[in-house]
## 1
Amino acid sequence: MAADFSFPEAAAKAANVPKEFEPEKMSLSMGPSHPSTHGVLRIQFELDGETVTKADPIVGYLHRGDEKIAENMTYNQFVPYTDRLDYIAPLANNMAYAIAVERLAKLEVPARCQAIRVLTAEMARVSSHLMGLGAYGIDVGAWSVFMYCFTEREKLYALFEELTGARFTTSYTRIGGLQRDVPEGWIQKVDAFCEQFLPILDEILGLLSRNKIFLDRTVGVGVISKADALSYGLTGPNLRGSGIATDLRKDRPYSGYEQYEFDVPVGAKGDCYDRYLCRGEEMKQSVRIIRQIVKNFPGGDWYAPDARKIFAPRKDKVLTSMEELINNFMIVTEGPQMPAGEVYFEAENPKGVLGFYIVSNGGGVPYRMKIRSPSFCNLSILPKLCVGHLVSDVVSILGSLDFVMGECDR
Amino acid sequence: MTTDVALPTAVSQQFPSATPRASLDCPAFNVPPADVLAVLQYLRDAQGYDFLMDATAIDWTAEKSPRFTVVWHLYSSTKHTYVRLAADCASDAAPTMPSAAGLWAGANWLEREVYDMFGITFDGHPDLRRILMWDGYPYHPLRKEFPLAGLPTDLPDAEIAAETKTNLIAAPMAGGPFVAKSGQPMGEAEPRAKDEAWNEQRPKPE
């Protein structure tokens, strides 16, 4: 144990070193293109030897002005932009955005629409955590995990493609409904995926959970206390890894989450390993939710049938009936009509809590839209979290925070 | 959807200056800037609103006064409810607001973003720098007078600017192969590949 040894003589000598012989601090810039920063994060370090004494994250390399763009287009036109927030889980973003605007319109969508949204959001959570886990494996030196994760993720993307027509940029929701209903036989394919996925997930987690190298890199590294997690506004698995059981799906159920049985995994120490364990367990819980939906898949409408000024009419009606044609034209050109007012809605996304604050003056375009991005808030703890760790531990910490820069920079 | 029903009376008893604000979901209050920190602290310590979820601002355009409103959203992990707090900046030309970074460490970055995007300064902020745009960027992009296409500026690095003799142009994709132009005949305005440049005026080459 290192603590058993002490070097009082050496320490006394070091204290008396004249100023000109004091060791110099080194400054190191990590990123914006560095494999462990998962995108375009840059961190400016001040190092004493290999120990971090100061860390200053520099974000904004992926800033596209999404909030400015939102003020200049109709509500439905902004749906594709939400894909590009957390581009690892676009379906979850689509759902959060659609519900936020529906809260503004005080619109309730039918049970089938809610179920499809929850189903896709949970599939997005699984695919996001698979990606996070695989990339984390690479960061700390476990290549094979990445291969397993990507194979499974690919199967999910094939399902997304069949449902939405796109693998990544799904743009699946519309205000008041969805882009389309689920294709025939798709639900059975989802069930088949869940069936074969659970044993593979156990295998993947088995590669890491008792892996000596992985434990050495993660246990006791990057400990976030409960107080810090609260104060920095962490959300998602990063918050729950620190032992705070806040999950909006349980606490403020939206889109019918109250009907499903699932557990919220919570960490004990708040280190990198706890965050990893939380993600692993969350995937199992997501599969549990998916299977419940598959079992009792509700029938009925997949869009709000009474929202004539919000949800565009069916295409066959548009092509055959004058009134529907005009209605469709108005929704496309003027946008879905919203009342004036302010709403704030947050959804529990894979990375944390994604919030939309919409200020409307009425009409089809928001006056102001603020996107509360979980990655941005989760990264704000870095200046505190990195200090005192080795540079190689920072790689482990970054991987365990599982952020996406598209969402952080907006 | 659950809301904190008892909160409006509790807050208005404690802070007579806090007036109710129109809201479609959670309880919301307008607060004078001088009382903001006291109300935030009261909500956090006495009412259990332990999460600062979001701090942002609204620009009501240069014609309106007060022009800028700063908005906070708090969440209670025990009551599972939200509350919204809003304060108008006293000055339109040099808007300021007290900083909540002493109450929540997370306010640090949120306020830096508001400063970057709106130019609202926060009194008592430990490190008020731009966060999404680079240091030395001359504009505040989310102000309403800032155009969507952007404005031309100098490159952040003076050495590279001197060497390349270029600067940042507004809407760099405008006029590109797949970008629509407004105010032209439909055939001209629609996005198209460059090799399909025929339209109403110019017939398709044989």
## 2
Amino acid sequence: MSDSNQNIFERYSFDRTRLMDVLWDFQRRDNYISSNNIEDIALCLKLSIDDVKETLSFYHFFLDKPSGKHHIYLSNTVIAKMNGYHEVKQALENETGCSFNGVDKTQTFGLADANCIGLSDQEPAMMVDEVVFTQLTPNKVKNIIEKLKQGKTAEEIANPKRYASNTLDYVHAIVDSNIRTASRVLFKPERDYKKILNTLITTTKPEDVIETLTESNLKGRGGAGFSTGLKWKLGREAQGKDKYIICNADEGEPGTFKDRVLLTESPKDVLLGMIAAAYAIGSKDGIIYLRAEYWYLKAFLQQQIQDFRDNGLLGEQILATTFSFDIRIQMGAGSYVCGDETALIESCEGKRGTPRVKPPYPIQQGYLGMPTSVNNVETLACAGRIIEKGSAWYKQLGTPESTGTRLLSVSGDCTQAGIYEIEWGTSLNSVLNMVGAVNTNYVQISGPAGDSLSVEKESERVFCYSDLSCNGSLMIFDHTRDILNIVSDYAAFFVEESCGICVPCRAGGVELKNKMHRIIDGKATQLDIDEIKQWSKLLKGTSRCGLGTAMPNPILATLKKFPDIYHEKIIVQKGPLLASFNMEEATSAHELAYKNLVQKGAE
Amino acid sequence: MVKIIIDGKEVNAEVGDNILDAAAKNNVYIPSLCYVKGEKCLGTCRTCSVKVNGNIMAACTIPVSEGMNIEVNEPDVTDMRKALVELLFSEGNHNCPSCEKSGRCELQATGYEVDMMVSRFPYRFTPRQVDHSSKYVWLERDRCIFCQRCVDLVRDKETDQKIFSIKGRGTNARIEIDKTLADKMPAEQVRAASDLCPVGCIIDKSQGFDVPIGQRKFEIETIKERALKGSIDE
Amino acid sequence: MNKCNKNEIFSHELPTTPLDPETQAKRDAKIQVAMIGFCGCWGCTLSFLDMDEVLISLLDKVNITRSSITDTKRIPGRMALGFIEGGIANSENIEVLEEYRENCDILISVGACAIWGGVPSMRNVIPLEECFREAYIDSETAVPNAKKTIPFHEDIPTITTKVIPLHEVVKIDYFIPGCPPDGATILKVLDDLINGREFDLPSAMNRYD
């Protein structure tokens, strides 16, 4: 085995649970993971070869064959498609000489689509190697590809001023933060973290920290809305040799990009929150699970952690106390379902992102079977503010049931896409005014897994946990947009991201997607609508995780809020043949086959 | 022991039992396809879905607790179990008449128990590749229902490594067999793997149609009778 | 279907001796049943005959019109029951199935082929062109050195892209699984329906093979 390979395994102590990192190291070294290297990995991590491939083949970005010197992934969200995705896609193919899902003849470019990469405020956007390019036009694409052909790296092109990758300037050079509102809780200028942590660790007991969080009524900002204080309380009470804090920075829900901006503009707030969590529950190890689509944030985040270490705020014996806590970054590799906390934990353990059977819950048995608190980036940032300013301060904002503020990542048909920090209790109407939305028809809240709203009927609804309980994603569509196509896009998204482990989601998802196609093709009857409702109940009732449960949401919600767009597509069966029976499709292959075979010499 | 309610009747259940086992011990049959008694709960097939205190859950995943109200024969959830079985039949290519596992197939037997006549879902006929590269095992992927029993429970005797693994995700996922490890399987293990597979996907190459119709496993005793006795295994 | 302008007459148009009115009346008063096999092996029809002597008492109540047993080639009028085996494999199957749906109150898919495609549907995972190639060009039993011919003519039906279950083409009312279903199973269903009872197939009688 080569020295280089040996180094990779040694770096991770031959630990099988670090397979994700091992795969990334091989891929970044060789551009893809060869079968020889897979054999070495299997040997050294004591896994069967297929077991290594089980992890490798699950994630969108792991490559097991040569895929071009430059890996280009074009975001294919509904927002991108409203803003020039098709022209950009065409330009990419023209300029590279490569077709999508292929490699060009010279092996320089590999092109593929990617599901939402967290940039819907500046789409069309694409990942190229370890950076991204936003606000694409065919001309921009031409320019970028030309430079790549000249031998420049993607990083050189995105970062012409050559800022070091661990700086804020680097991140800003690549991606805009687009914060549109004045800060209320988050995005405060540099704070005295040393002072805050000193107060925390030397004068507050862990139980008091939990008490403060509980008092503040902070609820999970990832979308589930679980009480943070309660989670940390359960974590403290849980039995386990080790305990873990995991920051969920997977942010895969389409239209969500608030965590991207938080990690750019207030990363230390997030670290502070993690330290508070660790202190509260008694953990010494933290992980930030960062989605691969945010690779350009990695070095910068690593620097933030290092800054804290250099200041004695992370590591062994923090601020000369007995409290030790350190954080490592775990990169994802392209999987929406890894935003689910148990799938995320599986990924941290080097496996495919299959959500676990519950019970047990992660807070009891999570990472490596130990009590684990998985918290969203924003939740941790808020927690960091609450321990500094107290729960009474926090409760002044928002409503009693939904305290504080929440970040919205807004995209679509609005004048100013970007980040908005609103107090809970704000109406949809106010937000639409804030963002400059005009002629709005339909709003998708919390991404495809969330809710579809009719602005005409529901604009007075309010952002709070008992009404519009939003994970942050807000996609706005005016009257020119085709809702059925958007819903069909979402259905296809879920099918692609399903882990496949349970019957209703894996198989049922395809059925729902096909029903949408049937409706759009004008071959659906009322029976199809009835079946959609029945089959949706099946998915919602029997799915193993939130993905399967959420799959039917866009269809059911738009059926309810925009019934006419469905009704005008419904046909009535005429005659004995079912409306869904496609005579053309059923009878066209014979002649075609005959002609092809005749061409090849038959009669 | 704890007291639970099953379909309106109060019964006793052993602490530590899941709902599936507790129901069987109380003579209430809940179908299942991925559950293997005594092994870790896989929770993949979802055909054991029942209502627990009003919420639909997979019975094999939930430990019993005092006062739990379980509905098995409630019409909605009964139809959901049937729908899941139908979904499996139309997702794969299940040609019972030509299958070596017919008569001892858990999917087929469960189809009979839920009174499936035809699938309500379109029959897909997805091309699936067979893998007969290993010496003793024929992997007939047409019939795979993705229960994950083989992935989790069939291991190399020496190293405990996985012989069967998953490749890909979602509807394109499929089971892979490690030829090197599979060729090291002793005959008993091959037969055990074939018996463990609830359908005719993992086929022991040395076993074909070896039992006459009428004398096959689930013809002698139905899957329901076996489940209520406590074990589906021979 | 007659595209050639030849001097032809259909068999049902040939002059026949009419039945005496009394027998005709008795026949008309019975439950009218039609049977057909599409892309199947006719095993389900043979299984129907496995009811042996019970058929005689069945025929007290039922008049079987079009079927391969009676050799009647047309549906003479409104039918109460259509007993169909075999799946859809060509365009003529589709036409006849339409006719059955239009003329029968109830349609029953009998056997694996009708219900989900059965053995013929094993070709569904292979593109049609490849099937033709295997059957007519690379076939083991093809005449060596002969010019290979693919059947394709306006006078013969079009082969469907895939073999299709009946209920994916028209509404089907009942299903009797099996390959073939047991004679007793078929009898149970027919007997229930004919005597005005609900369809009821106990799991002990339900078989897919």
